[in-house]
Amino acid sequence: MFFGKIKGTIDEWGFDVFNSTFESFIEIDKSKHMSIVNEANAKGKLIKGDEEGNPILVDPPEPTEKEKSEQRINELENFLRNTDWYAIRFADTEEPIPADIKTNRQAAREEISKLRELLNNNRTV
């Protein structure tokens, strides 16, 4: 197995291998490769090649504003899914939805709409 330093286009995820070439590379065995991959996954790091082609761990790039908005939408949608049972219970038993839950669900729906509108217009918050 080989690992190397890439020369060429590098994007936020690592490399554009179609427009890149290896500047230098080294051979690593499968156990070292798995060790590096496991460590990178455990620490939330990316694997890149240093000047000699040795694999090193680096911090991933900061999320873009678009990615942050999409992540926030996912968080809000999860909140709505996790509190849907209040609405179902109300429909089945007419037991009222607690005021704070009702208020927070409405705020979540409004924030989701705002974020989606901004994303659809290619703008960020």
From TrEMBL:
Residues 48-70 are annotated as: Disordered. This is Uncharacterized protein. It comes from Treponema bryantii. The lineage of its organism: Bacteria, Pseudomonadati, Spirochaetota, Spirochaetia, Spirochaetales.
